[in-house]
Give the backbone structure.
Amino acid sequence: MSTFAYEVFSEVAKQKTFLAAASQLNVTPSAISHSITNLEKELGFSLFIRNRTGVKLTQDGEKILPVIQDILNAEAKLAEEAARINGLNQGRIRIGAFSSVCINWLPDIIRSFKKNFPQIELSVTQGNFNAVAEQVRIGTIDIGFSALPIKEKLEVIPLHRDPIYCVTPESFKPQAGEIVTADDIEGRNFILQQIDYDRDTKRALDTYQVSLNSIHYSIDDASIIAMVESGLGLGILPELALQKLSGNVNYYPFKEHFYRTICLVTHSEAKQTPSTKAFVKAIQDYLASRYGEKW
């Protein structure tokens, strides 16, 4: 089987239509269809379920996607090793990150990295914690910023303990002055992103016995700020997410300190390319200089 067939399979799985995959690979949709049909014949089972809106992976297709992605990643690593041996500074790094890392960390990290490795190609995909970890597991991205705990069997590097704050309207004043206590929270509504509720945000709300009926969801951090500013409730956001958000709000620490631990997820070290290893070091150096943290 040719690696082109594997590339086609991977791209169709990502794009979910033959037309979009054809556009990304600069071939015709009929070439995509022909490649998938031949691959299915060689493997002996169907890879996609076709419907009017596009395609989706069969159960068998889902099982072999990580295997095929490993083959493609190994080929990329071989090409990069050969380039390194020949004295060339080439390669690619596919990065996944959630919004506050994309906004606050990655611009500086990438700028510094490109000064030292100008020929290495970088791409960034934004997603939530779970989506990033899953894409690293499959192999469609090389490095992902997520938050503990990580369920997938991946290499996990803790990076930073990010304090979690209570976001309030400007008119709100905690009874204890500079910290939010259970008395301040009693009977209040809270606004948060739904994806955050299964992690450290849930721990904070559970500690103060905030009921599910008092929780309302918003689509992103900026929307949370806007809703809090309008007096619709209190918010819970980590420090990193608050750094470049503006609004007529205040934020206070809780009486009990809560944190989320931002981490880096990668494949095992044996699968990391030289460029990926260099980028991991660039991330760690950046955080050490910014926060003085070294895990």
